[in-house]
Every structure is written in C-alpha cells, then in structure tokens.
Amino acid sequence: MPQNLLPPDISFKALLRLAGPIFVANVAIIGSGTIDTIMGGQLGAEHLAAIALGIAATISVLMGLVGILQGLSPVAGHHYGARKMTEIGIDLGQAMWLVLGFSLVGVPILMATDFWMELGGAKGEVARMATQYMFWTALALPGSMAARTFIAVNAAVSRPRVTMWVSLAMLALKAPLNAVFMYGLFGLPALGGGGAGISFFILTYLSLIAYWVIWNKDNFSTKDRKPSARDLPCGRSHKNVQHGICCFSGC
C-alpha cells in the first residue's frame, strides 16, 4: 500500500506526542497569570485586586474574540491532511485580516476603563493600577490575537512543540520583567500592579515575533492578500459544518 494511503497513527504514543506539548504550553500560559498574582500579592491587597480586575477584563474580551479565530485550526488541519500547504498560508493571512478587524472592536472596549472600574467597584489606588494594567493589555490585544492564530495553525499541522517552547520561554521571562516594572528596578518607577501589564505587552509581541520568524522558515504561502469572504477561516469552517450536516441529514 502506498505510504500516503496508510491510515493515520492514532496510538496512545502518537496522541501523547501531540497532547503533551499542548498541555505544557497551556500550563505555561496559565503560569503567567499566576506569577502576576503572586508578585502582586507580595506588594499588597490593592495591587492584587488591581491585577485581578485587569486580568478578568482582558480575558473576557480576548477569549471571546480568540474563540472565533480558532476556526482556523480545523481548516488548516483539513488542508494539511490534503497536503495543500500553500492554502494553509493563505488562510493564515486571511485570519490576520480578522485580527485587524477584531482589534478595532476589542481595543476600544478594553480602553473603556471607566466602565470596567465601575463594573468592578474599583476606586482609588486599585482603580488607578487596574487602569494602567488594562491600558497595556489593550495595546497587546492585537498581538495576542495574532499569536493565537499561529498557535491554532501549529496545532493543526502537528507542530505543538513550537507553541510549547515559545510559551515556556515567555514564562521564564515573566517574573524578571514583572520585577523591573512592578518593583522599579534599573532606575525605573515602581508601578506596582500596573507594571504587570507592561510585561504582558512586551512578552505578547516577543512571542508573536518568535512565531512569525519560525513560520517564515517553512514553505507555506504567506503572500499578502486582500480580505476575501471565501478565504476567511471562520467562513470556511461554517460552510464545512453546514455541508457536513446536510450530508448527514440528507438535506
């Protein structure tokens, strides 16, 4: 039997090779927020409250938008299985147009800090530090969404280790960068809980650069294209789901 007609390896060992790096990467991502919480708690209750409010608001906006971008993963996986490598790059480029559009919505929502402070009942120093934290996470939102598209496509093309190593590298840098901005090292002002937002901003774009550099070493097409409704990943996913439902139900 030709090699390309062999069934995929679905053994436990094969699944572990995929699931293991994804698990480690997710732990590393969660660990970043944990470091913020621990270091903020060491400074006091107000710093901890500011970080908690900032993280809650940021996650609320980010996860809602990233959930749509995750539509890239099954589409890229379909192309990868069909060995249509250039199509993966095209869809990734279209996903970046979605990131741009979502940024025009998400950034102003996070920048509306008065709303979030009123919603969280934050006042005084807590409100000041939370506002500072959210200012930087709002600026990081486009980079964070763009990085998530690379994470989605890396999982789809069986390269979760890329995400794992980048996430671990960012985790290793999190505490030192937090210390610089939260505690005021090297002559910089001590920003307390608000300083954690600056480290989030820096690490977000460092990770995006890392993903972009690694991706451009491959033979996927990344040629810029204008937005296309046909090529948008979430649009393709929706059509594929509709087609599957119709085939199953006989409609």
From TrEMBL:
A UniProt-annotated Pfam family: MatE
Q: Does the keyword Transport apply?
A: yes
Cellular component GO terms, alphabetically? Answer: plasma membrane
Where are the membrane-spanning stretches?
Answer: 14-35, 47-69, 90-113, 133-153, 165-186, 198-215
Q: Which GO terms describe its molecular function?
A: antiporter activity; xenobiotic transmembrane transporter activity
Cross-referenced InterPro entries: MATE_fam (IPR002528), MATE_MdtK (IPR050222)
UniProt organism field: Sutterella seckii
Q: Tell me what this protein is called.
A: MATE family efflux transporter
Q: Which UniProt keywords apply?
A: Membrane, Transmembrane, Transmembrane helix, Transport
Q: Give the superkingdom in one word.
A: Bacteria
